[in-house]
Design brief:
The structure is a single chain. The chain is α/β, with parallel strands linked by helices. It has 4 domains: 124 residues, Sandwich (Jelly Rolls), CATH 2.60.120.10; 73 residues, Glutaredoxin; 187 residues, FAD/NAD(P)-binding domain, CATH 3.50.50.60; 115 residues, 3-Layer(bba) Sandwich (FAD/NAD(P)-binding domain). It is 27% helix and 25% strand. The protein has 14 helices and 28 strands. Strands 12, 13, 14, 15, 16, 17 and 28 form a 7-stranded mixed β-sheet that branches. A 5-stranded parallel β-sheet has the order 19-26-20-21-22, covered by helices on one side. Helix 3 packs across helix 4, helix 8 packs parallel to helix 9 and helix 8 crosses helix 14. The chain is globular and about 80 Å long. The termini are far apart. Keywords: Flavoprotein, Oxidoreductase. InterPro entries: cNMP-bd_dom, cNMP-bd_dom_sf, FAD/NAD-bd_sf, FAD/NAD-binding_dom, Ferredoxin-NADP_redctase_2, RmlC-like_jellyroll.
């Protein structure tokens, strides 16, 4: 962030950089709005250099600058501070972590003559609800500030490792999809990488490494990384929540937003990152209300903030391992050994793409074989040919996005074409592109490479085989439901999807109190919009179920 008093002075910034949108990213509240905000807190005069908050703290307060200024500081890998923005009177501190209990990313320091209005955490939430016009300004600013931090790699970590390493790809995917700022040093191509490694006394055997505030984490798992960065939050295992949503794809996030906004004590657990399969989409263009399209990550990020604004708790990098449904107080065991208890459960764990059954396939996963086409994968494949396997909208969106970054995209489908499985607008774009070729009646027969995928072969219906040097294979075929953790608590169909329609709602499972929405539900339409609709509608049924259980507990007729 540059000082907002002269943002245009910073050279070389992207025109879409939110730091240039000063009026929205760093708005100055009017005197009337400032007075309304200040009424929720207390005024304080601060000594020069006083720390209002420091990176790594949780649940910090919200500050409105009344006089003087507040410097926002970023700490680099060597422990040096850099001023990334200076708040002037009428501006306020904070970004998205004020809506949750994660560790904050930056430090705030008072300038000489500073006077602030301090709004405590609970009062901040009350102010957001009570002053919706101000809340809208704050919410927009917080979202843009996080986008800016990510764009500039500020307030985050440094990922050091070979770009084509599966572990490097896994870590960067986790950071990106969870909206955590980072910068990457590719040891395969960055001439400064060796000096960085020597500085921290690291060897190639340690890679990939995440350097967080000067402390190297050697090839951490997603859960270890989430804990180290403060993405995970504490949970009271004894507390009985109204609603537990398992899975934070579009359907799960919609259930969380509507559940929390309607007063239910709501917890969401997510094994990887918000968004599900939709979160990996480069652009969704047929979702209502976004005529120019929106990336799956942006849509998921907004929905996550929306749920947290209403009070929902979100636990990331924590997957469901087992379900105990022997009583009305359900207990879900997490893969870290903890558990969550709830009166009702929404199963929104979605589905995962199937894998190809080929020799060497597992070894090359993440090393050239991918299940998402984002800017990261496109960068790794730049200037090469790539192959997309699949004929659905996800495959079409991936092909269109990749065609802007790679030499050529080859789409392989087992059938005669795309008409039966892909939206017409995508088919027309693919047909019009001279950088995309469709190969019908084909299937991949071989993948090969050293440290990463280098070539593959496919067979045509005639029996003829083609071999191609490639930089990436994007597999987007079919779906397998994520239902192993359910055990025998609910009925599943032959493919493992949750059977619903057993009660007053099409989302009721065979076990009262357990509901299923989105891709994990048997017979569901695999679309973002339908998942969001199911997640929002199911909450009314949950209310009726909880009311019925309450009446039964009080000895009243249902």
């Amino acid at each position: 962030m540059t000082d907002t008093r002269s943002p245009a002075a910073a050279p070389g910034l992207d025109p879409s950089d939110p730091y240039l949108r000063v009026a929205q990213t760093f708005p100055v509240l009017s005197d009337e709005m400032s007075a309304r905000v200040a009424a929720f807190g207390t005024a304080e005069d601060l000594p020069d250099g006083a720390m209002l908050f420091e990176r790594g703290q949780r649940s910090v307060d919200f500050f409105l600058c009344l006089a003087g200024g507040i410097e926002i500081l970023d700490e680099d890998d060597c422990g040096q501070f850099h001023v990334v923005h200076t708040h002037v009177p009428g501006q306020f501190t904070g970004e998205l972590d004020l809506f949750n209990d994660r560790k904050i990313l930056v430090t705030g320091r008072a300038l000489p003559g500073s006077r602030v209005a301090r709004i405590r955490r609970d009062d901040f939430r009350r102010m957001i609800a009570a002053e919706p016009d101000i809340g809208e300004i704050i919410m927009r600013a917080f979202i843009l500030r996080r986008v800016g931090l990510m764009l500039h790699g500020q307030g985050g970590v440094t990922l050091v490792g070979p770009g084509h390493s599966a572990s490097s790809v896994r870590i960067e995917t986790f950071l990106t999809r969870n909206g955590y700022p980072h910068r990457r040093i590719d040891t395969e191509s960055d001439v400064d990488a060796r000096g960085f490694l020597d500085c921290f006394e690291l060897t190639d055997a340690d890679l990939p490494v995440v350097v967080a505030q000067g402390h190297p984490l050697r090839n951490p798992s997603n859960a270890e990384l989430a804990d180290a960065l403060g993405l995970s939050v504490a949970i009271d295992e004894a507390q009985l929540h109204d609603l537990l949503v398992v899975g934070a794809g579009p359907a799960g996030l919609a259930a969380a937003v509507y559940g929390a906004s309607e007063g239910l004590d709501t917890v969401v657990i997510e094994a990887i990152a918000p968004g599900g399969q939709a979160g990996t989409s480069s652009k969704i263009e047929n979702y209502l209300g976004f005529p120019t399209g929106i990336s799956g990550q942006a849509l998921a990020g907004r929905a996550q903030v929306q749920a947290q604004k209403f009070g929902a708790q979100l636990l990331v990098s924590r997957g469901a391992a087992a379900l105990d449904c022997q009583s009305d107080a359900f207990r879900v065991a997490l893969d870290d050994g903890r558990s969550v208890r709830a009166r009702s459960i929404v199963v929104a764990t979605g589905a995962r793409y199937r894998k190809l059954d080929l020799p060497d396939y597992d070894r090359l996963e993440g090393n050239g074989i991918y299940y998402a086409a984002t800017a990261m994968e496109a960068g790794l494949c730049a200037g090469t040919d790539v192959v997309v396997v699949g004929g659905g909208n996800s495959a079409g969106q991936a092909a269109m996005f990749l065609s802007r970054h790679v030499r050529h995209v080859h789409i392989l489908v087992r059938g005669e074409g795309l008409a039966a499985t892909m939206s017409r607008y995508l088919i027309e774009r693919i047909e019009a592109s001279d950088r995309i070729t469709l190969h019908p009646y084909c299937q991949v027969t071989e993948v090969a490479g050293g440290k990463h995928l280098e070539r593959l072969r496919w067979r045509e219906r005639s029996g003829k085989e083609q071999e191609l040097a490639v930089g990436g294979l994007f597999v987007m075929i079919g779906a397998e439901p994520n239902t192993d953790w359910l055990g025998d608590c609910v009925e599943l169909d032959a493919q493992g999807f949750v059977v619903t329609g057993n009660g007053a709602s099409p989302f009721c499972s065979s076990r009262p109190g357990i509901f299923a929405v989105g891709d994990v539900r048997s017979g569901s339409i695999k679309r973002v919009a339908s998942g969001v609709g199911e997640g929002s509608v199911v909450v009314s049924t949950i209310h009726r179920y909880l009311e019925m259980r309450q009446r039964e507990a009080e000895g009243l007729p249902a």
